[in-house]
Amino acid sequence: MINALPEAIRWPAAEAYRAAGGGKDGLAAIDRIQDNYRDDAKAEKVRDKEQKVADQWDQLPRALGVRFPNTTEEEMAALVETAQLADTPEKGIKLAADLRKTQKQEAKKARVTEQIPGLIDGILSNPEWKDVIGVFDDSAIGNFIRMDQGEADAIAMFDLLGDVMTGENLDMMTGVLSESDLQVLRNIGAGLTANRSISEEQMEKALKAMFKATQGASYADYKADQILNR
Questions:
Q1: 3-state secondary structure 8-65
Q2: Spatial CA neighbour of 126 closest among 157, 163, 162
Q3: Which of 2, 73, 115, 160 has the smallest CB count inside 10 Å?
Q4: 3-state secondary structure of 177
Q5: Measured on CA atoms in the order 99, 105, 108, 112, is the torsion positive or negative?
Q6: Is 24 contained in some domain?
Q7: Sorting pLDDT into bands at 50, 70 and 90, what band is 192?
Q8: Which of 219, 122, 214 is nearest to 172 (CA)?
Q9: Is residue 174 part of a domain?
Q10: Are 57 and 127 within one domain?
């Protein structure tokens, strides 16, 4: 019987059996040894599991850094803080993944809102920008007349603005700009000649509305500040 026990408790079990005088008392002593052994084994498993989880929590910042590269220190600090709110490290990484999606969207929105005001100012500051709106196909203009530099610059600025005015980027402005202004801006994204019915007034209104939405101040206030701070 003793030989059938786990090796770790054979000797203690034999000693307990002899100390109890053998018989039923000895068998009861062996049972107690086995019960203690099983309890100790369970406790050790619990300790091992707890230690593993503790190690995972310790390694969480490093794991997040590998999982989400190209983050700023501020972004990573937010990811770690969010992950630590979870019950387990695994759930924490999932929470961090959700936050990272939001961070990327916000970063993209910030890039867009930083680019747009400068492009719009470049257009509206060009005295010839109205000459390239809704009156001809600028792709064929060279066949008839020679563009001057001001018109060429205006078209180039519109082209750059069109590159930024993707449907996804404009969707971020839904609720901030009117649908009519958004439609005019979508026309910019599609190319100036996509809708030749755009009037100068419509275009100027839409550009100024987008400027205010991304800059936080009206275009007139912006130009006034420029004059005052020269």
A1: HHHHHHHHHHHHCCCHHHHHHHHHHHHHHHHHHHHHHHHHHHHHHHHHHHHHHHHHHH
A2: 157
A3: 73
A4: strand
A5: negative
A6: yes
A7: low
A8: 214
A9: yes
A10: no
Gap between the Cα atoms of 154 and 159, Å rounded: 9
Residue bearing the bigger pLDDT, 221 or 136:
221
C-alpha torsion angle, residues 214, 179, 132, 190 (rounded to 10): 90
pLDDT attached to residue 115: 85
Q: Classify residue 92: in a domain, yes or no.
A: no
Q: How many domains does the chain have?
A: 2
Residues 47 and 131 in one domain: no
Residue 84 belongs to some domain of the structure: no
Q: What is the pLDDT of residues 97-112, one digit of tens each?
A: 999 999 998 888 778 7
Q: Which residue has the tokens 């500040």?
A: 225
DSSP labels for 98-156?
HHHHHHHHHHHHHHHHHHHHHHHHHHHTSTTGGGGSSSS-TTSGGGTSPPPHHHHHHHH
162-181 tens-digit pLDDT: 888 777 777 777 777 788 87
- What's the CA gap between 139 and 114, in Å, rounded? 29
Do 60 and 135 belong together in one domain? Answer: no
**Residue owning tokens 């060009």:** 126
- The model's pLDDT over 38-85, given as tens digits with 9 standing for 90+, comes to 777 777 776 777 787 788 888 999 999 999 999 999 999 999 999 999
Kind plus residue range of the DSSP H or E element containing 211: helix 200-215
